[in-house]
């Protein structure tokens, strides 16, 4: 410590040495200016941590050359030492606790975290870093180990590694809001200290708040208004990666999703349609709560469901829609083509033209002849969906069918399930009722009633002539299916009717 300080009334002695200069507030332009960057870099270098305290096993503070006049460095040193001792004690406790037991309990969660790790533990922020078009990819450490070792004890990289921390911080700047200009430093091998990174992060937040206030005053694009910042960032990244050219207006704001129009860009291994629809699943769970039954009992998603948090469940809806669309696509059913799925955002081909979505069957004013054609198409699609895709739409109605290019297109299949879903046949019956009612109202004389349609689509032969009994039979079948699952521990492959007997379940 500096012993030569002359004590006056103005300069009180501080047990920590000299009082650090207050940080001067500056604007973003200044923060990003090159001169400042140089200054910061110089300052950084002069404030570099002594090597000894950065390695886990090194001695603590040995050299005479260590500058102890900075409160900050001193405090950091003490904190590092404290953390180290704490962790060492924890390791001893852990060892004692576990003894020779084969099953051991890890105390890892109680270890002190280095501030670098602490500053960002959200898996979301670094979840998607699309580097496919990143010319710097080769130089950029995208797979930095969180902590621990690379190789067999050699080349040990600890989380305290200053260089690694610095690079990580630089990479994290990519996750600031789109409006926050971080320059092109991300691509260079730039190492940002925690201090600088945190200052920038704070600045990014306040900029975000400020720009949100500004945006309130003037009209902004619809896309920005209806989605949360994280989604906006996701959309921005898609544009940035070139997958999309632009994200345009909002086509629909439903209960569970918001749909946008976007101009397609390009992908390396895939053709991106010129017009795309982005279905953004809402990340507020409320609307989805009553739809749990569609996914909870779907064996494809069952195991994962119970372990997931609400955000992940929403992603699962998007994933489910993607899988279902793909199945339909490969069976030749007219439906949107999947382009890309990122978290809760599904990119697909746009059904419509020049940013105007095709009308739904509800909206399209079809003549009788067209209605008749539409009916036969729907019938055929329902059969293919059931037989080839092994799916029941489960929300089929005139609202989820579009009329485009003289044919019917099926959309909105996130809730679609396999027929052997515990309520699959009930859902199918409901679909049949909607379809039957719609085309009967439209005057298509060929339209059968819901029960007949159900039998045609499912290939089952349920004979009850009234709806109550019909439903009871359906439920009995579903129950049989469930019992089969209970007994054999696996689901049945499909329902099938006997030629001269009641419907039964069929196992391959
Ligand atoms: P809702 O609650 O209104 O049913 P949703 O959340 O179930 O909405 P969808 O039914 O998939 O979402 O889509 C809502 C609307 O967005 C559709 O009625 C249609 O107008 C439009 N839309 C959805 N997908 C596409 C697409 N691929 N191309 C064009 N428009 C689409
Ligand atoms: Mn819908």
TrEMBL record:
It is found in: Cytoplasm. Residues 216-459 form the RIO kinase domain. It catalyses: L-seryl-[protein] + ATP = O-phospho-L-seryl-[protein] + ADP + H(+); L-threonyl-[protein] + ATP = O-phospho-L-threonyl-[protein] + ADP + H(+). One of its GO terms (cellular component) is cytoplasm. GO terms for biological process: defense response to virus; innate immune response; ribosome biogenesis. Residues 116-153 are annotated as: Disordered. Its EC number is 2.7.11.1. It is an enzyme of class 2 (transferase). Keywords: Antiviral defense, ATP-binding, Cytoplasm, Immunity, Innate immunity, Kinase, Magnesium, Metal-binding, Nucleotide-binding, Phosphoprotein, Ribosome biogenesis, Serine/threonine-protein kinase, Transferase. InterPro entries: Kinase-like_dom_sf, RIO-type_Ser/Thr_kinase, RIO_dom, RIO_kinase, RIO_kinase_CS, Ser/Thr_kinase_Rio3. The keyword Cytoplasm applies. Transmembrane segments: none annotated. Its cofactor is Mg(2+). SUPFAM superfamilies: Protein kinase-like (PK-like). Interacts with CASP10. Interacts with IRF3; RIOK3 probably mediates the interaction of TBK1 with IRF3. Associated with 40S pre-ribosomal particles. Belongs to the protein kinase superfamily. RIO-type Ser/Thr kinase family. This is Serine/threonine-protein kinase RIO3. It comes from Hymenochirus boettgeri (Congo dwarf clawed frog).
């Amino acid at each position: 410590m500096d012993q030569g300080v002359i004590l006056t009334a103005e300069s009180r002695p501080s047990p920590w040495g000299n009082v650090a200069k207050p940080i001067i507030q500056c604007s973003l332009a200044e923060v990003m200016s090159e001169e400042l960057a140089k200054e910061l870099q110089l300052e950084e270098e002069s404030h570099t941590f002594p090597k000894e305290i950065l390695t886990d096993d090194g001695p603590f503070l040995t050299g005479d050359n260590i500058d102890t006049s900075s409160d900050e460095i001193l405090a950091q040193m003490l904190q590092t030492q404290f953390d180290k001792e704490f962790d060492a004690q924890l390791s001893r406790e852990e060892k004692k606790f576990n003894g020779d037991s084969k099953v051991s309990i890890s105390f890892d969660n109680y270890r002190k975290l280095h501030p670098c790790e602490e500053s960002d533990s959200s898996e979301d922020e670094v979840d998607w870093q699309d580097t496919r078009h990143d010319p710097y990819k080769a130089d950029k450490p995208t797979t930095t180990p969180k902590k621990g070792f690379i190789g067999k004890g050699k080349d040990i990289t600890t989380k305290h590694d200053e260089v690694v921390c610095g690079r990580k911080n630089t990479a994290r700047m990519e996750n600031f809001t789109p409006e926050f200009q971080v320059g092109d430093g991300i691509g260079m091998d730039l190492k940002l200290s925690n201090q600088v990174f945190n200052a920038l992060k704070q600045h990014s937040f306040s900029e975000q708040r400020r720009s949100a206030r500004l945006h309130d005053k003037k009209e902004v694009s619809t896309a920005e208004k209806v989605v949360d910042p994280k989604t906006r960032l996701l959309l921005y990244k898609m544009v940035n990666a070139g997958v999309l050219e632009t994200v345009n207006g909002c086509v629909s704001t439903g209960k569970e999703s918001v749909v946008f129009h976007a101009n397609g860009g390009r992908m390396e291994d895939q053709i991106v349609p010129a017009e795309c629809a982005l279905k953004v699943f809402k990340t507020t769970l409320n609307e989805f709560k009553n739809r749990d039954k569609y996914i909870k009992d779907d064996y494809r998603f069952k195991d994962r469901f119970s372990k997931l948090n609400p955000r992940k469940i929403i992603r699962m809806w998007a994933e489910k829609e993607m899988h279902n669309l793909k199945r339909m696509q490969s069976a030749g059913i007219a439906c949107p083509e999947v382009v890309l799925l990122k978290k809760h955002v599904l990119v697909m081909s746009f059904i419509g033209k020049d940013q105007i979505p095709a009308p739904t069957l509800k909206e399209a004013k079809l003549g009788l002849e067209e209605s008749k054609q539409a009916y036969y198409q729907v019938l055929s699609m329902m059969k293919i969906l059931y037989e080839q895709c092994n799916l029941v739409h489960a929300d089929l109605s005139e609202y989820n069918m579009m009329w485009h290019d003289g044919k019917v297109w099926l959309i909105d299949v996130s809730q679609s399930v396999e027929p052997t879903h515990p309520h699959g046949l009930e859902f199918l019956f409901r679909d049949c009722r909607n379809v039957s009612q719609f085309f009967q109202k439209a005057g298509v004389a060929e339209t059968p009633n819901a029960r007949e349609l159900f039998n045609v689509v499912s290939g089952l032969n349920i004979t009850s002539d009234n709806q109550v009994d019909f439903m009871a039979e359906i439920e009995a079948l579903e129950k049989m299916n469930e019992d089969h699952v209970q007994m054999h521990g696996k689901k049945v492959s499909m329902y099938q009717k006997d030629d001269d007997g009641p419907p039964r379940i069929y196992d391959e």
